């Protein structure tokens, strides 16, 4: 609680209440206001304290001040009374000016009333605290003793803070100065230390100096105490110093709170006064605004009336001038009629007759008056037309129709006006032709260079000529002059000869010459039209001071430009389109492929140059319209007209471009596809490739009847397979798969794509048409590279391979210093596959080219066109092409695998067993009754090699075959192929082993080495070779004595998972075991099992699977892997 009774946060709460309550919150008691209003209604603020009504507020203290005087909201009296008096003075029309001025809500009066309310509020608060009503009259805050003491304390505190800030550096240095204590007693040193510490404490508390904290202050206090000094005494004195600082700070806080409370209520009261003044200002501003609106509407009405009157006055003056001129022409016509001598109007107007002898008015005979004469004649012709229209519709007055004399005068006057108009227009046209024919450079700057065309004179003449039938004769004259002088290539007189050999393009005997001449022609048209557009914009543009020259809403420069373009482009005899059609017709008459290629190039040149030309012309038209807009012509009304005219001209230019290009596009597409098919087939034919001619496609009679040009569909001419078989792998590599042949074909396809982009463009606007053409080209190339080219080659590669192995057994072993047999699949087969893969990749890279920027290939063009349907169809074509090629390639590779398998069996079985006709195995067979095989080697036989000859020879062939296969196949395909080959070799070897071979202990050693060698070859590619590792474990059954076989089958004791029964299966292990040479022996009754076999089967409690039919499919590599 503060000294004045405001609680913490009280002032904020009062401010919020005042804002929400407004002025009414501070009003006095209604009964007090009603009592005081009758006596103080006419009182002035300056003497308000002397009025009896005002004295009443000094006699009593409001109740709410008595209840809580220290936390009370101010109650206003003088501000509300001022508002009431002001309102009554405004309502009372009889109030004198002095009274209204005294109660006027000026800022000075409002501040005076607010100061009175401030003093009254403070007096009420003080009077309520001491219960003394007399303070209401004479209390002043400045004379309050408590206020003075509080103010003095605050000043003293501020002086102390200023002193501490000034001495802060010295105080901090004194903390670390220990030399001043010399010569002092211990008690004196303690007092000096405490004094310095007190100053540091005051600096820390009152100023919060940077670099100081309570810990450092306390450490300094303890650091100045010696060991023999009583520390409790020092700490007690320091505590007293701290208490003194706390008391002074508490008192300063209370003083500051009271000071703020003293300022808050006056601030709120003065703020209310300013708010009232602001509201009064807003009211006055609103009144001024209402007066301004009223006066503005009145002024606007007066302005409209004045404009209407001015318009009527101008119309009357124009009508008066028109009547005088009509009378003048009527008088001349009467004189001419009465005299019988016609006036030589044309001679007078052209200046042939001297001015003194002229009968016509100088307005028409003097050339400097041409514009005024044209305006006058336009008005006179309008009168003639209006009379004619009125007579035609029957709306003429009875007097006019009945007065034949008036009709006669009107007719002869109209005749004279027509002759005068024709003569003036002819004079202006001749002058325009002379100025334009003089020529000169086109310089439209403010100071033209010497030799520049006089475009200002042309503009003046055009302004006058535009008043004659909207300048139609001027347009025709200007266009004739431009085409006659600027386009001799198209409109020269010698070009009118019917002999087409004399035509401009007849000299173009090759594509380069044609391209050059067409380029020059289009460039000439573009340069001339661009220059003339700029001249048209300056000459035919309407002047901002001559807004009455044009009829309708047409923009005259754009109309003239359109007329010029129509003549240059679409003239039926000499126009640009007519010349191009004549050139194409002359090419068609040659009728050979060279002429067709030339026509194709001509199509492309025409479309390429036409696109550039019309793009340039559209830009020039837009620039011309922009110049017109910035020249100052009535922007509000002409901007929309200019926009419409520019769009109309741009539409006309696009229609002219389409007229040139669209007529050729369908013919171009058919010709492009036909020549591309011919060139591709011609490339194969030159390489010596024979092709099969299929039945031609029948034309669609429905389209022929409608006169619609049918789309060209290229026939499929596949390569002749029998011819490919005859030339073999080497001939295929040197012929169809030659790299140069592939490059020529792809270059032809890319050229077609580039030409199609030039013909149709590659953007969103022409996206659908371009996408359709690109799709047709790509589809035809897919058909050629697939059905006609690669598919027959791949199918023939598989057909060339032999189906079976030779009937004669091979001579084993093969000499490794010589080339081994190719196992039926020569290296050239794999080279052919590699070339086919390269061709397919090059086809996709060069034609499709997905992701390659600026390639101008199929993917990029379709992406730029944005046609999702064409893109989807093209992707489907691409996927279908590679799917078909992949299927045929897989079929060829499968045939190669079958051929290799047949030759592997030829070497392993036929070759290996042919060596068993003599030797120890035959002696063993006679003793045991078993055929033996290559591994039934007697125990005492010494092996010359670690591998059998058949296995060694086969593996040698496979190792030499592997590099060719690796070069032809991808890594994934190579892995799959080599794994399949490994499994085929496993199946052949194991099947023969289990059905026909017996193994002795000596033979098992060679068998183990053979299997390890085959495993090493199989592991050259791929990782799925578990069947070989299991076979190695099974071969171990042939090495130990019969006593150790049981543990190998069942596994070590306690670990059955390591036995062969668990790894490969019980029946499989027993079947392999049955091929031991000592498993059976020859007895009188036939073949019997050895005793150890019977004992083993009994101990294992299993049956012998070889007693019945053995299912050999259980031993396939796919089951053992």
From TrEMBL:
Q: Name one GO biological process term.
A: exocytosis
Q: Name one GO cellular component term.
A: exocyst
Q: Specify whether Coiled coil is a keyword of the entry.
A: yes
Q: Which residues form a coiled coil?
A: 111-167
Q: Where is this region: Disordered?
A: 1-44
Keyword Coiled coil belongs to the record: yes
Designated name of the protein: Exocyst complex component Sec10-like alpha-helical bundle domain-containing protein
The organism of origin for this protein: Fistulifera solaris (Oleaginous diatom)
């Amino acid at each position: 609680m503060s000294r004045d009774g405001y609680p913490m946060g009280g002032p904020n709460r009062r401010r919020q209440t005042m804002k929400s309550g407004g002025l009414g919150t501070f009003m006095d008691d209604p009964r007090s206001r009603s009592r005081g209003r009758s006596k103080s209604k006419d009182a002035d603020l300056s003497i308000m304290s002397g009025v009896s009504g005002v004295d009443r507020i000094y006699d009593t203290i409001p109740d709410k001040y008595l209840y809580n005087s220290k936390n009370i909201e101010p109650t206003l009296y003088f501000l509300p009374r001022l508002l009431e008096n002001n309102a009554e003075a405004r309502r009372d029309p009889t109030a004198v000016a002095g009274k209204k001025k005294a109660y006027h809500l000026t800022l000075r009066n409002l501040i005076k009333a607010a100061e009175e309310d401030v003093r009254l509020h403070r007096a009420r608060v003080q009077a309520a605290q001491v219960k003394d009503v007399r303070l209401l009259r004479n209390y002043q805050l400045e004379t309050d003793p408590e206020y003075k003491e509080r103010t003095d304390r605050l000043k003293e505190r501020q002086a102390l803070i200023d002193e501490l800030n000034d001495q802060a550096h010295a105080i901090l240095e004194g903390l670390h100065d220990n030399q001043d204590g010399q010569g002092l007693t211990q008690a004196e040193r303690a007092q000096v230390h405490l004094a310095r510490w007190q100053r540091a404490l005051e600096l820390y508390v009152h100023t919060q100096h940077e670099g100081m904290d309570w810990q450092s202050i306390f450490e300094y206090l303890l650091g100045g105490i010696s060991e023999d000094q009583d520390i409790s005494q020092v700490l007690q004195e320091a505590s007293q110093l701290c208490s003194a600082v706390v008391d002074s700070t508490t008192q300063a806080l209370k003083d500051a709170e009271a000071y703020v409370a003293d300022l808050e209520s006056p601030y709120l009261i003065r703020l209310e006064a300013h708010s009232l003044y602001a509201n009064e200002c807003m009211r006055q501003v609103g009144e001024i605004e209402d007066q301004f609106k009223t006066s503005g509407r009145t002024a606007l009405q007066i302005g409209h009336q004045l404009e209407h009157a001015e318009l009527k006055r101008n119309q009357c003056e124009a009508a008066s001038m028109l009547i005088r001129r009509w009378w003048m022409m009527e008088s001349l016509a009467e004189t001419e009629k009465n005299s019988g001598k016609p006036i030589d109007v044309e001679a007078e107007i052209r200046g042939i007759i001297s001015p003194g002898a002229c009968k016509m008015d100088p307005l028409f005979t003097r050339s400097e008056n041409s514009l005024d004469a044209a305006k006058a004649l336009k008005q006179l012709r309008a009168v003639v037309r209006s009379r004619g229209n009125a007579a035609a519709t029957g709306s003429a007055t009875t007097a006019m129709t009945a007065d034949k004399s008036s009709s006669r005068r009107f007719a002869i006057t109209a005749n004279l006006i027509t002759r005068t108009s024709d003569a003036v227009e002819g004079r202006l046209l001749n002058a325009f032709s002379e100025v334009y024919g003089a020529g000169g450079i086109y310089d439209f700057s403010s100071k033209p260079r010497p030799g520049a065309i006089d475009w200002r004179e042309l503009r003046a003449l055009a302004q006058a000529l535009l008043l004659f039938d909207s300048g139609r004769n001027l347009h025709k004259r200007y266009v004739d002059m431009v085409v006659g002088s600027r386009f001799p290539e198209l409109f020269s007189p010698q070009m009118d000869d019917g002999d087409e050999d004399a035509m401009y393009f007849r000299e173009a005997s090759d594509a380069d010459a044609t391209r050059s001449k067409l380029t020059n022609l289009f460039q000439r048209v573009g340069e001339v039209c661009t220059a003339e557009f700029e001249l048209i914009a300056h000459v035919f543009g309407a002047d901002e001071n001559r807004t009455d020259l044009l009829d309708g809403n047409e923009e005259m420069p754009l109309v003239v430009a359109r007329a010029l373009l129509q003549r240059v482009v679409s003239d039926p005899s000499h126009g640009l389109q007519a010349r191009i059609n004549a050139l194409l017709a002359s090419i068609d008459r040659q009728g050979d492929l060279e002429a067709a290629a030339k026509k194709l190039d001509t199509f492309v040149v025409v479309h390429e140059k036409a696109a550039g030309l019309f793009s340039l012309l559209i830009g020039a038209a837009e620039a011309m319209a922009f110049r017109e807009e910035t020249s100052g012509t009535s922007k509000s009304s002409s901007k929309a007209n200019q926009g419409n005219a520019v769009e109309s001209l741009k539409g006309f230019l696009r229609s002219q471009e389409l007229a040139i290009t669209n007529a050729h596009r369908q013919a171009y597409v058919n010709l492009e596809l036909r020549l591309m098919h011919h060139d591709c087939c011609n490339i194969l034919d030159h390489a010596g490739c024979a092709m099969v001619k299929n039945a031609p496609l029948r034309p669609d009679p429905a389209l022929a009847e409608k006169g619609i040009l049918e789309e060209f569909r290229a026939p499929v001419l596949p390569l002749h397979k029998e011819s490919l078989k005859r030339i073999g792998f080497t001939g295929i590599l040197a012929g169809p798969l030659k790299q140069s042949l592939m490059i020529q074909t792809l270059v032809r396809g890319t050229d077609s794509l580039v030409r199609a982009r030039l013909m149709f463009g590659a953007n969103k606007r022409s996206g659908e048409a371009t996408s359709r053409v690109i799709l047709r080209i790509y589809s035809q190339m897919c058909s050629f590279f697939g059905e006609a080219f690669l598919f027959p080659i791949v199918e023939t590669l598989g057909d060339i391979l032999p189906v079976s192995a030779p009937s004669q057994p091979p001579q084993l072993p093969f000499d490794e210093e010589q080339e081994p047999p190719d196992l039926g699949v020569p290296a050239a087969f794999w080279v052919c596959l590699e070339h086919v893969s390269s061709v397919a990749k090059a086809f996709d890279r060069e034609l499709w080219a997905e992701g390659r920027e600026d390639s101008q290939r199929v993917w990029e063009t379709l992406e730029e066109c944005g046609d999702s349907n064409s893109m989807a169809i093209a992707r489907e074509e691409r996927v279908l092409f590679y799917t078909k090629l992949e299927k045929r390639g897989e079929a060829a590779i499968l045939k190669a695998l079958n051929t290799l398998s047949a030759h592997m069996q030829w070497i392993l079985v036929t070759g290996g067993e042919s060596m068993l006709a003599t030797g120890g195995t035959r002696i063993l067979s006679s003793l045991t009754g078993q055929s033996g095989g290559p591994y039934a080697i007697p125990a005492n036989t010494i092996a010359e090699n670690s591998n059998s000859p058949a296995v060694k020879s086969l593996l040698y062939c496979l190792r030499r075959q592997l590099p060719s296969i690796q070069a032809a196949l991808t890594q994934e395909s190579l892995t799959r192929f080599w794994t399949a080959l490994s499994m085929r070799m496993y199946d052949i070897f194991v099947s023969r082993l289990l059905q026909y071979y017996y193994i002795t202990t000596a033979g098992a050693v060679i068998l183990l080495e053979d299997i390890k060698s085959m495993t090493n070859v199989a592991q050259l590619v791929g990782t799925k070779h578990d069947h070989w590792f299991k076979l190695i474990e099974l071969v171990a059954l042939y090495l130990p004595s019969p006593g150790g076989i049981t543990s190998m089958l069942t596994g070590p004791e306690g670990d059955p998972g390591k036995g062969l029964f668990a790894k490969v299966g019980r029946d499989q292990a027993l079947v392999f075991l049955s091929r031991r040479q000592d498993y059976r022996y020859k007895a009188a009754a036939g073949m019997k099992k050895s005793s150890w076999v019977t004992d083993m089967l009994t101990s294992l409690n299993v049956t012998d699977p070889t007693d019945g039919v053995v299912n050999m499919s259980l031993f396939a590599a796919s089951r053992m892997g």
